[in-house]
Amino acid sequence: MEPENIIESVGSAPVETFRGVVFPWHCDAMGHMSVQHQVPLLDNAVYHLLGFFGPTAGQVDGRNAGWADVSHEIRYLHELVAGDLLILSSGILSIGRTSIRHRTILSRRPDAKPCTILEGVTVRFDLDARKATPLSDRERAIAGQLMLPAETN
Q1: 70 near 99, Cβ under 8 Å?
Q2: Among 108, 73, 110, 68, which Cα is nearest to 88's?
């Protein structure tokens, strides 16, 4: 199966990477969505972002490759409550030798208010050697297409 090469954004806006809803069982004793339920949504969104590069694990560009997260910073800006509809959008902030730095914004519909922001670094990972490996030229080109505008970096 060929990698999906359709990228909705070229340096202008994040791409939508996930949708969800806050259910009552996602809320804690304070009545808002708990962190333990937000983190999996952010992880799913990043997984979809990585999907633009092709298979997330397996034979890629002639090598047995995957991805490994090496850092996350999460900011919780606004509460989410049961019934809120969620849209997660992601993009690339910078491209390193072996890594990409990315941002995912979890927003509430219909006001599009950013509620949670994840910034992370993910490395291309050699699944045989179990270590970071350089990004291919093809991966760099895809990351370039997914770059967020400079003013949002």
Answers
A1: yes
A2: 108
The token pair that represents 78 in the structure block:
């606004």
- The answer to whether 96 touches 120, Cβ cutoff 8 Å, is no
Confidence of residue 3 (pLDDT cuts 50, 70, 90): very low
**Residue 76 corresponds to which amino acid?**
Y
The Cα 55–Cα 127 span in angstroms is 13
Q: Is the dihedral of CA 77, 18, 124, 140 positive or negative?
A: negative
**Dist. CA 134–CA 146, nearest whole Å:** 18
Given a cut of 70, whether residue 122 has pLDDT beyond it is: yes
List, in order, residues 6 or more apart from 110 with CB less than 8 Å away. Answer: 85
| Mean pLDDT, residues 71-98 taken together | 97
In this prediction, residues 69-93 reach a mean pLDDT of 97
What gap in Å lies between CA 117 and CA 93, rounded to an integer? 13
